Amino acid sequence: MRQSYLFTSESVSEGHPDKVSDQISDAIVDLMLAKDPEARVACETMTTTQRVILSGEIRCAPMYDLDNPEWGENGGWAPGAKEEIERAVRQTVREIGYEQDGFHWQTLTFENHLHGQSAHIAQGVDSSGNKDEGAGDQGIMFGFACDETPDLMPATLDYSHKILQQMAKDRKDGTAPFLEPDAKSQVTLRYENGKPVECTAIVVSTQHAPGYDKGEKEAQLHAYVKGVVTAILPEGFITDATEWHINPTGSFEIGGPDGDAGLTGRKIIVDTYGGASPHGGGAFSGKDPTKVDRSAAYITRYLAKNVVAAGLATRCTIQIAYAIGVSKPLSLYVDTHGTGTVDDAAIEDAIRGIEKLGGLTPRAIRTHLGLNKPIYRVSAAYGHFGRKAEGDFFPWERTDLVDDLKAALA
Predict the structure, then answer these.
(1) How many CB atoms lie within 10 A of CB 370?
(2) Can 26 be counted among the known catalytic residues?
(3) Amino acid 1: pLDDT
(4) Which residue is catalytic, options 22, 151, 180, 293?
(5) Which of 68, 81, 249, 341 is the most exposed place for a label (fewest CB within 10 A)?
(6) 243 catalytic, yes or no?
(7) Cα torsion for 112, 37, 378, 207, to the nearest 10°?
(8) CB count, 10 Å around CB of 70?
(9) Distance between CA atoms of 170 and 228, rounded to whole angstroms?
C-alpha cells in the first residue's frame, strides 16, 4: 500500500436532487416500519421540476393489502394511506428547505405508483416451516473502518460531510440566509506515511440567493465558506498552497430537482466511504432491512469499526456475500491491509464464533442491531457511516463488540 499520495472524496447536501430522492424513499420506509416492523419496502423516487414520483413494491398490512375485500375498491390501499404517504413526502421536502418556484413542497405534483410486493420474492425471503428467513437478494457488501478520524472514517469523506452539515445548519438557523439547499463539497488531502497531513484542494459549490455570484455578496459567500472549512479541518491542514474552488462555474441560483433530476440510489460512494473502500454496488435508501444491500452493509461496517476500535488493526475491510432466499452467508472475508495485530483469518474465525451475531443471518443482523424501526430517513443525507450512535439511531456505529472480539482472540 502506498504511503505518500493525494486522495479525494466528495459529499453532497440534503438538498442535492439525488439526496432529496433518497430521503423521500427512506421517509416511506420509516412510515411503513412505524406501522409494521415486518413491512417490506422497495421504494424508488424520482424528483424533477415541481414533481415527485414514487414507484416500487410494498407489503404492509395496515397500509396496503390486495386481499382485503374492504380495500379492494381503493386499489388495495387502506383508507387514508395514500394521503399519509403524500404528507410524508411533502413534509420531507419542506424540512429540507425547498420553497422555490421550481420545487416547492406545497405546490409540487405528486405521483404514487407503489404496488404490492412480488409473491415470488416474498416466498424466498419469508420464513416457513423449517426454513429460516432468507436474504432479500443476492449480492456482496463491504464494510470499512480506519483510524484517520475519531469517527473511524476516511478523513477526506468525513470532512466533506461535516462541511455541508455545518452549512445546512447555518442555512436553517439564519446564520447564512444567502444559502439555498443544494450543495456539493470535495476535499483532497495529502497523505504521508499513510496518514493525512495537509489539504491541497477544496471544492464547494452551493446554491445561493440571487446576487451572490458577483461583487461584495460573492465575496461574503466565499469568506463564509472558507471560514466553515477552516473551522472543520484540523489545525494546520489549510495552508497558503491550498487550492480553493468555490462555485467555480459562477452562478448557482437554480438547483435541486429544478436544476437536475434526482433518483434514489445514485450516491452510493457518498453514502459509504468516499472511494476508500470497495463497494458491492447496492444502494441503501428505500429498502427495508430484510434487503441485505442495506442490513449486511451495516453489519460489516459495525464489524470493521469494532475491529479497529479494539486495536486489532488501523484499517479494516470486511466483505460478506448472500444468495436470495438463503439465510447463511456464502462467505466472510477480512482484510486489515497489513495493519493487523493478529492474522486476518483469526479475525474471521472470531466473528463467526461470536454467538450474539447469530451466524450473520439476515434475521440475526436485524435483531442484533435493532433495524426493524423507523430510523432511516436521518441516514439518507451526509453519509450512513461515521455518525453518532444515539438511542435507536445508527446502531451499526456502536463499538460494543470490542470486548467480544478481544476475548475471542485472547
Answers:
(1) 12
(2) no
(3) 67
(4) 293
(5) 249
(6) no
(7) -10
(8) 9
(9) 10
- Between strands 331-335 and 315-322, the pairing is antiparallel
Question: How confident is the model at residue 127, as a pLDDT?
Answer: 55
**H-helix or E-strand spanning residue 109:** strand 109-116
E strands, 105-151, in order: 109-116, 139-146
**Residue 184 is a catalytic residue:** yes
Amino acid 102: pLDDT? 97
pLDDT at 2: 79
Grid coordinates of 337 = 491491509
Q: Give yes or no: 291 in active site.
A: yes
Low-confidence ranges of the chain (pLDDT < 50): 128
Q: Who's near 342: CB < 8 A, 6+ residues apart?
A: 312, 409
Q: Which of 36, 57, 99, 348 is catalytic?
A: 57
Q: What pLDDT was estimated at residue 123?
A: 54
Of 261, 146, 162, nearest to 196 by C-alpha is: 146
Task: Give yes or no: 261 in active site.
Answer: yes
Among the listed residues 7, 10, 14, 18, the single catalytic one is: 18
- What residues are paired with 236 via a beta bridge? none
Is 18 an active-site residue? yes
Q: What is the DSSP letter of 74?
A: G
State the catalytic residue, choosing from 40, 90, 161, 291: 291
Amino acid identity of residue 244, one-letter, is W
Whole-prediction pTM = 0.95
Instruction: Please check whether residue 247 is in contact with residue 220, taking contact to mean a CB–CB distance below 8 angstroms.
Output: no
- pLDDT value, residue 133: 79
Residues 6 or more apart whose CB falls under 8 angstroms from that of 100 comprise 180, 256, 258
Looking at residue 131, its pLDDT comes to: 53
